[in-house]
Write a structure and sequence with these properties.
Rossmann fold; alpha/beta; 311 residues; single chain; 7 strands
């Protein structure tokens, strides 16, 4: 699987999972996102923007475009590579037109869009091509506004920490040891014998070793806490389940953790520095007004705000 395909699969896992249904936010679980601050930002942006067609690039669940002040839903478009994200956005913004496409290949006519926005989405594309596409579709006087990941910023630091925890779970031997513990326990439950009891003891010791590696992050809760609590509950009540039910649950959890780690890597690789931020706005509006500013969230510089007005 290519890196692009893997990234799309990791985000599809997110949008189709419980996190998307509960929050609809791309940064759910990173800890730094302040919804009130982001809402206030977009609430201030839209009244000053030119009227006309509004396009939300990599719209996710519509967390930015939901603040658009236009009353004509036909003027609102959400574009994303994920069909699950489009459905989430249309739930949040009734009447929103959804387009499944990449930000670097926008299926809209030249000069047809008055306002292009993006919140933690544009930067996941081929940014050079996406900037050229935005310049192409923006009408004269059109405006581009985006909040993007800042390399080395607060969100990036949080993502690095979450990635380290996910990688620790994967490398700890937790999954292999808990699978062996379940297998040994089921075999002993079916036919108690001294040699099978010894297998359970050895499997338990291996599991305890893996558990000790994760002890600190299990205490924190999160995905490690949920994994461990679920495994303990299933073990205590294992006689009420088929072995295949437990194996399926463990496989799903392992997949979810791998996808989570993939999303954290994606966020880190999508973060941009100031030089690239300035290059992006210059591509969009070479001779128009351009601005790049750090955006603090919860008092820490967490993102860039990119602005470009096409003359």
């Amino acid at each position: 699987m290519s890196e692009i395909d893997r990234s799309q699969a990791d985000w599809a896992n997110y949008w189709s999972g419980r996190e998307a249904g509960q929050t609809g936010e791309v940064l759910a679980g990173t800890g730094i996102e302040n919804h009130d601050e982001l809402s206030a930002f977009w609430t201030a942006v839209f009244p000053e923007a030119p009227t006309g067609l509004v396009l939300d690039l990599a719209c996710g669940a519509g967390s930015a475009i939901k603040h658009a002040t236009t009353t004509d839903s036909n003027l609102l478009i959400g574009l994303d590579i994920s069909s699950e994200a489009i459905l989430a956005a249309q739930t949040k913004v009734p009447g929103l037109t959804g387009i499944i496409a990449a930000a670097d290949s926008i299926p809209l006519a030249d000069g047809s869009v008055s306002q292009v926005i993006s919140q933690f989405g544009f930067e996941y594309s081929d940014r050079e091509k996406a900037a050229a596409e935005i310049s192409r579709i923006l009408a004269p006087g059109g405006q581009f506004t985006a909040i993007v990941h800042l390399k080395g910023g607060a969100i990036a630091e949080e993502c690095q920490g979450h990635l380290a925890k996910a990688e620790l779970i994967s490398s700890s031997g937790y999954f292999s040891s808990v699978r062996e513990l379940f297998a040994a326990a089921f075999e002993f439950d079916a036919a108690p014998a001294p040699d099978l009891k010894q297998r359970v003891v050895e499997a338990g010791a291996s599991f305890s070793k893996a558990q000790s590696v994760l002890a600190s992050i299990i205490k924190e809760g999160g995905i490690a806490g949920r994994l461990h609590a679920g495994a303990r509950q299933l073990f205590d009540r294992r006689r009420a389940y088929l072995p295949t039910d437990i194996t399926t649950w463990l496989d799903q959890m392992a997949h979810e953790i791998d996808a989570y780690a993939g999303r954290m890597r994606g966020m880190l690789s999508a973060a941009i520095d100031e030089a690239e931020a300035n290059a992006i706005v210059s591509t969009i509006a070479a001779s128009g007004h351009k601005d790049v500013q750090a955006l603090p969230l919860s008092g820490r510089d967490a993102a860039w705000v990119l602005k470009a007005n096409k003359p």
